[in-house]
Each structure stands twice: as structure tokens, then as C-alpha cells.
UniProtKB/TrEMBL annotation:
Residues 56-144 form the Methyltransferase domain. It holds the Pfam family Methyltransf_25. It comes from Actinokineospora soli. The keyword Ligase does not apply. GO terms for molecular function: methyltransferase activity. GO terms for biological process: methylation. SUPFAM superfamilies: S-adenosyl-L-methionine-dependent methyltransferases. This is Class I SAM-dependent DNA methyltransferase. InterPro entries: Methyltransf_25, Methyltransf_Superfamily, SAM-dependent_MTases_sf.
Length: 215
């Protein structure tokens, strides 16, 4: 008999289904105003190159998946929210988009040359993040890269209003050393750490961590 779905998973899916259209509209040009994001994604794309497929895991409305594809990567997107996947398919007809969970990716072992976890770790309680780290390491091929981005801190925030809608979900700010430890425990190596100061409307520093799977 299947185990019940964790509450944080169903809460996250419901919230992002609710905000999918407005989220896509309000974040459509986010990369245009963030040179740091573009620089880090460009470095990731150059390192991965044409080695194989790249999964944007927690892709939301697909803008970053499409950006990775524009940089020459064989990129596809996976998101927990069916509504986000619908929006992504409509807005970006080139890449493939599928519904899926970071806790159980429908991907073969060692099948990805690259994986992007762009603010997609933040809704998983920290005590359950080792399960996500193990899954990310599982799907990476030897020599593959993982890029993770997240807000820096050490606290839980409850979100009751987002993108013009009433929602109910938790988000976690994370210490970079904690995230680095999770992924190294899962068998990856840290290649780079970047922590930048917040830019309005951000309230906390933002971290980018790049990992490589040995081999």
C-alpha cells in the first residue's frame, strides 16, 4: 500500500497550482534584472556543455528551462505542480515538461549530465532534505553537475499570501554549509560557492552552490 504523501508536498502542489498563472506573469522577465543569476547559469551551461540531458528540477513556469535551452543545453523541466507544467508547456513549446517530485524522480540512475535545483529545495523541511539530496545524486551521471540556488538563513517562514492569492505553505532559508554538507554526504563534490547580498525586493543573501559527481 502506498505511503501517504507528506503534507509539505501536497501543500506545495496546491499553492503553486493556485498561483501558476500570476507567478509566470510576475516572474517572466526576472532574469533580465539579475546579472548574477545569468552569470551563474551561463557558467553551469558551459561546464555541462553537450554531455547529455539537463533536468530543471522544480522548473515552475519553465522560463529557466527555456533559458538553459537557449544556452545550448538539452534541457527539460520537471515540476510538482500540474498547473505550472501546463503554463510551461504553453509558454515554451520547445523543451519537454513533466509533472514529478524531487522525492521520487521518474528518471533513471546516472541519466543526467546536469541538474538545476533553482529555489526548489526551499519547501522541503530540512530534516527531509537528505532524501532529496540522495535523489539528486542518484540521477546525475559521473562527471555531471548540479547547481542549487536558495535564500540564505536558518529559519522557517509560513507563506499565507503570494502572487496575489491566498496560499498556505512553508519556506525554509538555509545555511550554505548545511546544503553543501547534504550534497557531499550524498556523494557529490563542491566545485563553487557564491553568496551575494540581497537586491530589492529580496530580504536575505542568496546562495548558489555548484556540485560535481565524481567519476
Amino acid at each position: 500500500m502506498p505511503r501517504p504523501e507528506p503534507t509539505h508536498v501536497s501543500d506545495t502542489r496546491t499553492a503553486y497550482d493556485t498561483v501558476a498563472e500570476s507567478y509566470a506573469e510576475q516572474t517572466r522577465d526576472a532574469l533580465d534584472g539579475s546579472p548574477w543569476d545569468r552569470a551563474v547559469l551561463s557558467a553551469f551551461a558551459e561546464l555541462v556543455g553537450t554531455a547529455g540531458p539537463v533536468g530543471d528540477l522544480g522548473c515552475g513556469p519553465g522560463a529557466l528551462t527555456a533559458h538553459l535551452a537557449s544556452l545550448g543545453l538539452d534541457a527539460f523541466g520537471v515540476d510538482l505542480s500540474p498547473r505550472m507544467v501546463e503554463v510551461a508547456r504553453r509558454a515554451h513549446p520547445g523543451p519537454r515538461f513533466e509533472v514529478g517530485s524531487l522525492l521520487a524522480l521518474d528518471l533513471a540512475d546516472a541519466s543526467l549530465a546536469g541538474a538545476l535545483a533553482w529555489y526548489s529545495l526551499i519547501h522541503t523541511p530540512p530534516e527531509q532534505l537528505p532524501l532529496v539530496a540522495a535523489e539528486l545524486a542518484r540521477v546525475l551521471a559521473p562527471g555531471g553537475r548540479l547547481l542549487a540556488a536558495f535564500q540564505v538563513g536558518d529559519e522557517r517562514l509560513h507563506i499565507a499570501r503570494g502572487y496575489g492569492h491566498d496560499v498556505s505553505l512553508d519556506a525554509y532559508r538555509l545555511p550554505p554549509d548545511f546544503v553543501a554538507g547534504l550534497l557531499t554526504d550524498a556523494g557529490l563534490l563542491v566545485e563553487a560557492r557564491v553568496v551575494r547580498e540581497p537586491r530589492p525586493p529580496e530580504r536575505t543573501p542568496q546562495a548558489y552552490l555548484l556540485f560535481r559527481k565524481p567519476g
